[in-house]
Automatic annotation (TrEMBL), chain A:
Pfam families: WD40 (PF00400). One of its GO terms (molecular function) is peroxisome matrix targeting signal-2 binding. One of its GO terms (biological process) is protein import into peroxisome matrix. Belongs to the WD repeat peroxin-7 family. WD repeats lie at residues 99-141, 249-281. One of its GO terms (cellular component) is cytosol. Keywords: Cytoplasm, Peroxisome, Protein transport, Transport, WD repeat. This is Peroxin-7. The keyword Cytoplasm applies. It comes from the Eukaryota. It is found in: Cytoplasm, Cytosol; Peroxisome matrix.
Length: 345, 414
């Protein structure tokens, strides 16, 4: 396990570069992001451990970061003052572009993975905005009317955007539809709806809605997503039958802050939680590994070296499958191999 | 700002969710309102609706429901009419709905809980939707006070009169007397009542001038003295009403007291209002606009002799049921049966007067008994839309000693 200390700053998100296998970004804020400056660290994984290549300072905490898919040296940050900034690692200490439209904290930024000319942002002001790095104003604003914690472009389709937020709904927007009273909204799935197939030990009725803090698209199955949030349960959804969750992954003891599906295995995902653990799960869908198809999910392993809320996870795309980076409010970024923590079952 | 970030993290840690989030969340099974309209409120005996008896009034409002909502009338399974004075109300609503464009597969009934009948009709339809009896219904509140007929034609039977229960005997008490009782028991002076009434008129006049009522009123064309007239404005609002002017008016119930007058009591009025309700999933399926969510309603009983204080029991009861406080409420529609009870309820519950009856109330607009419960929803939701506010509380006192309250969440926030 390799460690890096973000001295004086508490990390919120960490992302591997899509272009370089040894480059990692961490967005952080002073004083747990409540007040004070923000910092974006650009880190290199070398034979001598993690080295800081560069860092950028900002006026307010940085809640999220996303590498550009078009330009190998550029990276976006989501700021607590409502600003989105584009930094270029080779260019000075100030951003090369900035956008100030959100009226409250921007909680996530996500670069389009199919149409690499656009990115999305979501904010406490209740909107998701779609941008192009070349344009000064946002292209589309999707109203959600309650704090949106996470928004993403689908990795399978260039025009599908999803988001989750405080009102416990997973919203799917299709940007191809005409702008109308629906504002591109195609589906609004209540995350707290009862499961389609009764899950043992979970009960039949709808549990109360709770804030949903994170979601992620499955990288292999184009209609599957995972969401997680304050009720500590990770749910998987299939958009082909959207009335309720397919799978429940229970085990975390506090809110789950981030989930990320593996880029290598279609049934594995990684989560970071306020209970200070990062856990690996399977949703049971991989028949070869013994899952029954739409099987039952279970925990495969956990890493509890963090000593504060675990806030961000990201898988390494390159090299041996199974390496990931996690960051937590204990001012540490840990890079480790998931396979070392899998339990023998 | 830092404090807000901190409290958002803290709320992510605490397992339960805040009550305000519970009531504002959107579930597919919620009962939602997709249309809320009302006729103008006209003075009884001499106003625009004097020649339109109850069946005509219900017919007119149901016609507007069909027209304004674009709903396929076959989808409406039940219509409930809240009406107080007319014992034949059930006949009228049935015939009127069949004439207004609803097929004979649409059922109809009437309810009477006096001044809360409009809200009770909404609750009736909502309860049927919640239990799955029906999927879509219309609640109507309508009253033709020009016809009269509110009082009992004979006293109660001996068993009741001689039961020795004062409360039972007090059910015969005229409303004016209950108002004077409230004024005396709780020391609401004539001056306080007239000040309140003047403010109600001022707010209603300002709202009417600013056109705020335009999105709740649906104009209707009726016959007045044989001629067709299109009614568009509430008639009860007397412009330039002042405290001094009101203070000169003689007491209306001198045998009971000297504080309630015609100027600081609700007016005798004709009017109708209608609310279209269905499940949220049904509204999305039919493409109906979702105006608001019906959260719940409840009733509380008390001594008939001071029936006016009803809201001061019903409101805490409903807030407790949902874990809310008055701070969570954005707009309050409290029926001004009399200034005595309005002042008492506002001050006892420490209501924020800027949130309460911002467009005036029954003192200025009128109180067509069975219509009021539904009318408050139309006005309250229109005000929520104007303010871009979310939570509406409606409440009223009820003759014979009750209070009712309902909570709605406005969803038209754009």
């Amino acid at each position: 396990m390799i460690e890096f200390r973000t001295q004086g700053f508490n990390p919120y998100a960490t992302k591997y570069s899509p272009f370089f296998d040894s480059r990692l970004a961490v967005s952080a804020g002073a004083n747990f992001g409540l007040v004070g400056n923000g910092r974006l660290y650009i880190l290199n994984l070398t034979a001598n451990g993690i080295q800081v290549e560069k860092f950028f300072e900002t006026q307010d905490c940085l809640f999220d970061t996303a590498w550009s898919e078009q330009h190998e040296n550029q990276i976006l940050t989501a700021g607590g003052d409502g600003s989105i900034k584009l930094f270029d690692i080779g260019v000075g200490e100030f951003p090369v572009a900035g956008w100030q439209e959100h009226s409250r904290e921007v909680f996530s930024v996500h670069w389009g993975l199919v149409d690499k000319t656009r990115f999305a942002s979501s904010s406490w002001d209740g909107t998701v905005k779609i941008w192009s790095p070349e344009r000064k104003e946002s292209l589309v604003t999707l109203p959600v009317h309650s704090c949106v914690y996470s928004a993403q472009f689908s990795p399978h389709h260039p025009e599908i955007v999803t988001c989750v937020g405080r009102d416990s709904h997973l919203r799917v927007f299709d940007l191809r539809t005409k702008a109308s009273a629906q504002n591109h909204l195609t589906l609004a799935i209540p995350i707290h709806a009862p499961p389609k197939v009764p899950v043992p030990g979970y009960g039949q009725g709808s549990v109360g809605p709770t804030e949903c803090l994170t979601h992620d698209w499955n990288k292999y199955r184009d209609s599957v997503l995972a969401t997680a949030g304050v009720d500590s349960v990770i749910r998987t959804f299939d958009l082909r039958s959207p009335s309720g969750p397919v799978n429940f992954l229970t085990g975390h003891e506090y809110a789950v802050r981030k989930v990320s599906w593996s880029p290598h295995l279609s049934d594995v995902l990684l989560s970071a939680s306020y209970d200070m653990t990062c856990r690996v799960w399977t949703d049971g869908s991989n028949v070869e590994k013994g899952g029954g198809g739409a099987g039952f999910g279970r925990e495969l392993g956990r890493m509890d070296a963090h000593t504060e809320f675990a806030m961000g996870v990201d898988w390494c795309l390159f090299g041996a499958e199974g390496w990931c980076a996690t960051c937590a409010w204990d001012e540490r970024v840990l890079v480790w191999d998931v396979r070392e923590f899998m339990r023998q079952t | 700002m830092a404090a807000e970030r901190l409290s958002s993290i803290v709320s992510q840690l605490t397992p339960g969710q805040k009550p305000i989030d519970t009531i504002t969340q959107k579930n597919p099974d919620d009962v939602v309102i997709t249309l809320a309209i009302r006729t103008p409120l006209c003075k009884a005996y001499k106003g625009g609706l004097k020649d339109t008896p109850l069946d005509g009034l219900v017919f007119k409002i149901l016609e507007q429901v069909v027209r304004k909502s674009n709903i396929d009338p076959q989808m409406v399974e039940d219509i409930c009419l809240g009406n107080v004075s007319d014992s034949k109300a059930a006949y009228y609503v049935r015939a009127a709905c069949l004439a207004a464009g609803f097929p004979n597969t649409t059922a109809a009934s009437s309810v009477n809980r006096f001044c809360s009948s409009g809200l009770k009709a909404v609750q009736d339809i909502a309860n049927q939707i919640i239990t799955g009896s029906i999927e879509c219904g219309v609640a109507v509140g309508a009253e033709h006070m020009s016809t009269g007929g509110d009082r009992l034609t004979r006293p109660f039977v001996d068993d009741i009169v001689h039961s020795g229960t004062q409360d039972a005997a007090d059910c015969l008490m005229p409303m004016g007397q209950t108002s004077e009782n409230v004024g005396k028991d709780f020391n609401i002076t004539r001056e306080q009542q007239d000040l309140y009434a003047a403010e109600s008129f001022r707010r209603a006049e300002a709202a009417q001038k600013a056109g705020w009522f335009d999105d709740e009123i649906t104009p209707i064309t009726v016959k007045v003295d044989g001629k067709d007239v299109t009614l568009t404005r509430d008639e009860g609002i007397r412009p330039n009403t002042t405290f001094e002017g009101l203070n000169k008016i003689r007491p209306a119930f001198p045998e009971f007291g000297d504080r309630s007058t015609g100027g600081n009591s609700s007016q005798v009025t004709d009017g109708a209002a209608a609310v279209l309700l269905m499940k949220r999933s049904k509204a999305l399926e039919l493409g109906q606009p979702i105006l608001a969510k019906f959260v719940g309603a409840t009733v509380a009983g008390l001594a008939p002799r001071i029936m006016g204080i009803g809201p001061s029991l019903a409101v805490p009861k409903i807030l407790t049921k949902f874990g809310l406080t008055l701070d969570d409420i954005d707009v309050i529609e409290l029926n001004e049966a009399f200034a005595s009870m309005a002042v008492y309820c506002r001050d006892t519950m420490k209501m924020d007067y800027s949130k309460m009856n911002p467009r005036g109330g029954a003192i200025a607009l009128g109180h067509p008994l069975g219509c009021t419960g539904a009318r408050q929803i139309c006005t309250g939701l229109s005000e929520c839309r104007r303010r871009k506010a979310k939570v509406l509380l409606t409440t009223m006192c009820i003759g014979t000693g009750m209070g009712m309250a309902g909570i709605f969440v406005n969803e038209q926030l754009d």
